[in-house]
């Protein structure tokens, strides 16, 4: 028995409608015709579907908003951590890490400070379930739940650079160098770059906070 048939039977049983067959499906003063019932439920279904669409759209916007807030916090925390070291110790040099063959590894930088200490800045983006940015001994993981079995990087909504590439630009200004470090971080449905962009100079005229 279909839903409408069940509904018709229920209403008929309790005298909520009184169909007179052979009389053009007319009803008495206390009932409704089948056509009227079908139209009513059709309109109700349209309203329900419309409301469902609004709810789904709202949930999607909330999800995007929460993701945006998380990425802003991620960017601010990582940027502040690196900049604090640059401010306190002063930067001496920034260069790409070297592999066993002596070639540059574009997913890794070595930051050398004026007190002769060094810290590595590295991007790991090979495993969708274990993506992170490493600075010194601090790991900043990309926390994203992907509801799919055996997900790949293409299934992720948050995107790190391909192959973990870090953009490093070195510009000579007089006798010193200006280093620009950039790690793009983007997200689907959000037209904004949440990546890291840091500018530092080894100009000796700029004294570290600890000197």
How would you portray this structure in words?
With 211 residues, this protein is of the alpha+beta class. It has two helices and twelve strands; from the N terminus they run H-E-E-H-E-E-E-E-E-E-E-E-E-E. The chain has two domains: 3-53, no CATH class; 62-201, no CATH class. The protein is 32% helix and 29% strand. Strands 3-4-5-6-7 form a five-stranded antiparallel sheet, with helices on one face. A three-stranded antiparallel sheet has the order 9-10-12, with helices on one face. A hairpin with a 7-residue loop joins strand 5 (118-124) and strand 6 (132-135). The chain is elongated and about 90 Å long.
Beta content comes to: 25-35%
What's the Cα radius of gyration?
Answer: 32 Å
The total of helices stands at 2
What percent of the residues sit in helical stretches (DSSP H or I)? 25-40%
Strand order of the largest sheet: 3-4-5-6-7
How far the N terminus sits from the C terminus, by CA atoms, comes to 86 Å
Class from helix and strand fractions: alpha+beta
Q: Can you tell me the residue ranges where pLDDT is under 50 for at least 5 consecutive residues?
A: 13-28
Mind summarizing the main beta sheet?
Answer: 5 strands, antiparallel
Number of strands: 12
Task: Supply the number of structural domains.
Answer: 2
The averaged pLDDT comes out at 81
Gross morphology: elongated
Q: Give the topology string: H per helix, E per strand.
A: HEEHEEEEEEEEEE
